[in-house]
Amino acid sequence: MSLQLRSITKTFGPIVANDSLSLTIESGEIHGLLGENGAGKSTLAKVLSGFVSPDSGTVELDDEQLKLSSPSAAVSSGIGILHQEPLVFLDFSAVDNMLVGSPRDGNHTKDLAEEHLLKICEQFNFSIDPLIPVQKLSVGERQQLEIARLLWLGARVLILDEPTTAISGSQRENLFQTIRSLAEAGMSVIFVSHKLEEIQEICSRVTVLRQGRIMGTKHLPCPTSDLIDLMFDRELEPQGRKSSDSLGSICLELCGQKVTTHFESGKVDMTFRTGEIVGLAGLEGAGQRDLLRSIAGLDDTVTEGVFFRSRDIGDDSYIHRMQYGFHYLPADRGREGLVDGLTITEHVALASPQRSIATDWKLSREESKKIIDKFSIKGTPESVPASLSGGNQQRLLLGLIPDNPTVLLMEHPTRGLDIESAAWVWKYLMSLTEEGTTILFSSSDFDELMTYCDRIFVFFEGAIIQELASVEATTERLGSLLGGVK
Ligand SMILES: Nc1ncnc2c1ncn2[C@@H]1O[C@H](COP(=O)(O)OP(=O)(O)OP(=O)(O)O)[C@@H](O)[C@H]1O
Ligand SMILES: [Mg+2]
User: Fold this and answer.
1) Do the beta carbons of residue 339 and residue 385 sit within 8 Å?
2) 2-231 and 250-482 in the same fold
3) What is the SS3 assignment for the chain?
4) Residue 440 bridge partners (DSSP)
5) Tens digits of residue pLDDT in 432-446
6) How far is the CA of 393 from the centre of ligand 2 (A)?
7) Which residue among 43, 47, 194 is best mutated to probe the pocket of ligand 1, counting the most ligand atoms within 8 A of its Cβ?
8) Which among 41, 112, 212, 264 counts the fewest CB atoms within 10 Å?
9) What is 250-482's CATH superfamily?
């Protein structure tokens, strides 16, 4: 079996997202699709899986030309896609999610879906209760469910669009194991990512896209520098935290609070200085998110003893804390950070601190142009979040907060961003700290933590088990702390 793409072109207005792409992917191959933000990876994945129809070009599987007019047409032709955040109906059970969109025939009944799911669970070591509501499943488990569904519907080519961005390290291992078994069983896997190590680890070949064009295809492993050369047209300069001598006075204090629910230890004692960058390391769900959200005033995990510039703000809501300059940027940019269907201009109007009964659209539009310009967002004032790549969504979120936040709380600031966009984001964040912003961020990227933090707190199962100065942090040390080994 082989999948052949011939001259796929897809434009969005003036943007050529895919420019005459031709590529052959063999059966049993794990083929990487690598490229920086906006390179056109997701567009190609969407064309192949029937979510987007190309302007021109054809796709053949086993020498047969496919009609990819819709996602269900694509799946019944044998091509299934696992989205970054799988599309699932959260209130429905796992098995009902498998039935949504399946053909209405005797081969696709609830009983057969359940039987298939249990078989896949056993085969790949998943543990999903067929009757559990999907909202109780982690992102990793939703992916497993989606893989089971696609296999049930007959997928022979599986496309994974940045599948590791929202899952833990152990879930990632499990996913990779699954991908390898699928390839061994003769499936073709297209693995979309901009994480070089992941591509090197799992793929047998990789195709690099830049600005909608194929820059080259390589057998793996190959020198990482070769891939970087194909991805970018210039060498990237490493940059890091220069010195932390210039930290200001204490601006935020959490002391001896009554802490409910997630924090096992029941107590948090932390101080943060003006201009400081503090990283929160830990596996997904170890408590970092709870802490960030409660400092933002979104959760009441930390209910007492939150002081901002010596003032007790424990009872102040998120809106109040925003007035003190607190801002929270969530990991799920599409769903939690931005509003689906609203344009950049509408976001600017919504985020404006000078909101009143009447909206000055002309002003909002001008403001959105300025943000697009300043943050180099690939889009227009009329762009909606769904039309922006992950990196551009993060740039927009940064653009929507005021210029001088006092405390910036971020989950995974560069998750899903390519190297260059990540470097850009950190350059911007560091310029904020020079103006006095304190940054607290969670990350699962050790390099990011070690490069940019003044201090790192490591979380394990809901409690902080270690505080480290960034000079004390090594990959080995962080790795064992994450696993709870002090
Ligand atoms: N629905 C759409 N409407 C308009 N423009 C779009 C749409 N979808 C994608 N684009 C544009 O096409 C280009 C390629 O985007 P695509 O999402 O394929 O990039 P990507 O390589 O997946 O990037 P990322 O790594 O950030 O996910 C970008 O410039 C993007 O803004
Ligand atoms: Mg993408």
Assistant:
1) yes
2) yes
3) CEEEEEEEEEEECCEEEEEEEEEEEECCCEEEEECCCCCCHHHHHHHHCCCCCCCEEEEEECCEECCCCCHHHHHHHCEEEECCCCCCCCCCEHHHHHHCCCCCCCCCCHHHHHHHHHHHHHHHCCCCCCCCEHHHCCHHHHHHHHHHHHHHCCCCEEEEECCCCCCCHHHHHHHHHHHHHHHHCCCEEEEEECCHHHHHHHCCEEEEEECCEEEEEEECCCCHHHHHHHHCCCCCCCCCCCCCCCCCCEEEEECCCCECCCCCCCCCCEEEECCCEEEEECCCCCCHHHHHHHHHCCCCCECCCEEECCEECCCCCHHHHHHCCEEEECCCHHHHHCCCCCCHHHHHHHHCCCCCCCCCHHHHHHHHHHHHHHCCCCCCCCCCHHHCCHHHHHHHHHHHCCCCCCEEEEECCCCCCCHHHHHHHHHHHHHHHHCCCEEEEEECCHHHHHHHCCEEEEEECCEEEEEEEHHHCCHHHHHHHHCCCC
4) 278, 409
5) 999 999 999 999 888
6) 11
7) 43
8) 264
9) P-loop containing nucleotide triphosphate hydrolases (3.40.50.300)
Ligand lying closest to the C-alpha of residue 417: 1
- Closest Cα partner for 175 from 185, 464, 403, 165? 165
What's the order of all strands across the beta sheet hosting 311-312? 270-273, 250-254, 306-308, 311-312
Measure 193 CA to ligand 2 centroid, in angstroms: 8
CATH node for 2-231: 3.40.50.300
Nearest-atom index, ligand 1, CA of 212: 14
User: Which mutation among 10, 19, 42 tests ligand 1's pocket best, with the greatest number of atoms within 8 A of CB?
Assistant: 42
Mean of the pLDDT values across residues 291-305? Answer: 80
Pocket-forming residues, ligand 1, beta carbon under 6 Å: 12, 15, 17, 35, 37-43, 194, 378, 386-391, 418
Q: Point out the ligand 1 atom lying closest to the alpha carbon of residue 388.
A: 31
Say if residue 258's pLDDT is above 70.
no
- The token duo for 37 is 């933000």
The residues spanned by each domain of the chain are 2-231, 250-482
Distance CA 268, CA 257 (A): 6
367 closest CA partner among 332, 403, 341: 403
Q: Which two tokens stand for residue 229?
A: 């050369």
Per-residue pLDDT tens digits for 45-72: 999 999 999 999 999 999 999 999 999 8
Residue nearest to atom 1 of ligand 1 (CA): 387
Q: Which amino acid is at 125?
A: N
Ligand 1 centroid to Cα of residue 390, in Å, is 8
d(CA 214, CA 25): 14
